[in-house]
């Protein structure tokens, strides 16, 4: 028998430095457009993944992250770097236990846990950001056929 424990999001008292930008729906379209305008040198430190209506772009340093209207930021959790959380919000339960439960349930690492819209986004398929990779994301988001390079 598995017990379910309720939890809620609360404001982070000490937001970490962001290492990912997260966008949903129209904001994801705007972020994708912004990325497609960037040159190869600006894209070089970035990795990206898309899942449903989400677009997540990560970098190894905050200053490399792009900005676009409507985006939010995320960072790995100190208790378990394979669990990423929004920088401004944190669950009100012990993060090590939550991370363990999330990894047991989803069987993927790393994972982004997001409050609104409530979602778990797998980050294990992040790829280096490049023009062709972004074009595939755009084609997928628009419903066009997607061809491998």
Automatic annotation (TrEMBL):
Q: Which domain of life is it from?
A: Bacteria
Q: Which residues form the MoxR-vWA-beta-propeller ternary system domain?
A: 7-140
Which Pfam families does the UniProt entry name for this protein? bpX5
Q: What is this protein called?
A: MoxR-vWA-beta-propeller ternary system domain-containing protein
**Source organism of the structure:** Ideonella lacteola
């Amino acid at each position: 028998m598995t017990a379910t424990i309720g939890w809620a999001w609360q404001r982070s008292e000490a937001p970490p430095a962001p290492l990912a930008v997260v966008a949903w729906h129209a904001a994801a379209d705007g972020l994708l457009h912004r990325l497609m305008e960037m040159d190869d040198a600006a894209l070089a430190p970035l990795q990206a993944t898309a899942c449903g209506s989400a677009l997540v772009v990560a970098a190894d340093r905050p200053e490399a992250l792009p900005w676009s209207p409507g985006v939010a930021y995320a960072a790995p959790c100190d208790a378990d770097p394979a669990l990423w959380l929004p920088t401004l919000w944190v669950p009100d339960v012990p993060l090590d236990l939550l991370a363990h439960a999330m990894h047991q349930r989803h069987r993927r690492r790393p994972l982004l846990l997001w409050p609104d819209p409530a979602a778990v986004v797998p980050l294990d398929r992040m790829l280096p950001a490049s023009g062709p990779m972004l074009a595939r994301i755009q084609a997928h988001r628009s419903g066009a056929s997607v061809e491998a390079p």
